[in-house]
Amino acid sequence: MARDVDAATWDEEVVARSRERAVVVDFWAEWCGPCRALAPQLETAVRARAGDVELVKVDVDAEPALAARYGVQGIPAVKAFRDGRVVDEFVGVQPREQIDAFLDGLVPSDADRLVAVGDEESLRAAIAADPHRADARVALARMLLARGESGEARALLDGFEHDRAAAGLLARIELAASDDPTAQVTGALEALGQGEFEPALAALLLAAVEAGGDTRDRIRRVMVGVFGELGDDHDLSVAYRRRLATALY
Asked: Which of 130, 152, 128, 126 is nearest to 141 (CA)?
């Protein structure tokens, strides 16, 4: 059965819980016939996902502020939350196949589960299940590079240059294989391999200023890849993106 949620329990039952698994919120009212028609189908479909999705209900008459906050204008209104925000939604009674499709889009795939495990065997299985998973290829390529297996790492990443982290790793491989890389570049790549991002970025920035041509572009791509790995809002990404732009342009 779906749990009833109100303004007092919203943050815990929806926002916080959705950071662990998808939470589906059914905005409804007692007088709403379509709401009563949808509810049992929605509950059955959620139950079939064996805990991968949770279902809660909000009575819009009792909680008009919550309904207004999330733009509910007609009911039943169903909104799916992941990581504290709405990621999908529908309004009105839907056939079971549409409900199933809606929920399936919220449930982790086999490849998602394997990437989350993160060991080499799981990452290889994730790539076999979904060859287009750039995140699995990047994670496995990092492991291979740490063992010095740059050839297989490059083969894994070829064709995935659209992904910043993949492009950054490919640039690392190119830099390491370039003719007589400077001690500064070599030290920076070693620091990156050990997860020491700040000294690595500092050394790469200095190397970029002194380098030219292809080497400078490779250093730029390595740094952009690190920004993608850390996240655009990370303090190091913000600081060194600005410094890199100043140094190069």
From this structure: 152
Q: Which of 5, 22, 24, 35 is catalytic?
A: 35
Judge if 11 and 72 occupy the same domain: yes
Q: What is the pLDDT of residue 26?
A: 97
Backbone angles phi, psi at 118, to 5 degrees: 85, 0
One domain, residues 53 and 116: no
Place of tokens 């909104």: 79
Q: Are residues 74 and 121 in the same domain?
A: no
To the query of whether residue 11 is one of the catalytic residues in this protein, the response is no
How many structural domains is the chain composed of? 2
Active site residue 5: no
Task: Return mean pLDDT, the chain.
Answer: 91
User: In the listed set 74, 104, 134, which residue is the last one of a domain according to the structure?
Assistant: 104
Domain match, 99 and 133 both: no
Q: Which residue among the candidates 5, 25, 32, 222 is catalytic per the annotation?
A: 32
Percentage of the chain exceeding pLDDT 70: 100
Burial of 222 (0-12, 13-18, 19+ CB in 10 A): buried
**What residues make up the domain containing 196?**
110-248
pTM: 0.64
- pLDDT at position 186, please? 86
Whole-number percent of the chain with pLDDT over 90: 65
